[in-house]
Amino acid sequence: MYDINVKYGDTIEIDESNISDWMYFDDKIAKGAYTIKVLRNQMSAEEQKQFDIQSGLLFD
Predict the structure, then answer these.
(1) Positive/negative CA dihedral, 12, 34, 29, 49
(2) Quick one: what percent of the chain has pLDDT higher than 70?
(3) Among 22, 28, 36, 40, which is disulfide-ready with 32 (CB 3.0 to 4.6 Å)?
(4) Which InterPro entries match (predicted)?
(5) How far is CA 18 from CA 10, 12, 15, in A?
């Protein structure tokens, strides 16, 4: 575990080889989130609907 002190507005550098998935929001739309999208795409339409409601995530 890493113990780092990061404040809002700080710039940090991350080695890209340490990133396995990522997600950010653009106007409430989840960008990235590739692992979640793969799992969601394996769900039935009803399961997807329930997941979307429970998670509050919107996908492009």
Answers:
(1) negative
(2) 97
(3) 22
(4) DUF2314 (IPR018756)
(5) 19, 14, 6
The structure tokens listed for 7 are 């404040």
40: part of which helix (H) or strand (E)? helix 34-41
Write down the pTM of the prediction. Answer: 0.61
44 in Cβ contact with 31 (< 8 Å): no
Give the per-residue pLDDT at 1. Answer: 64
How far apart are alpha carbons 42 and 19 in whole angstroms?
A: 23
Instruction: Give the 3-state DSSP-derived string for 1-60, with helices as H, strands as E and coil as C.
Output: CCCCCCCCCCCCCCCHHHCCCCEEEECCEEEECHHHHHHHHCCCHHHHHHHHHHHCCEEC
Q: What is the DSSP letter of 13?
A: -
The CA distances from residue 22 to 11, 42, 49, 50, in Å, are 17, 20, 22, 23
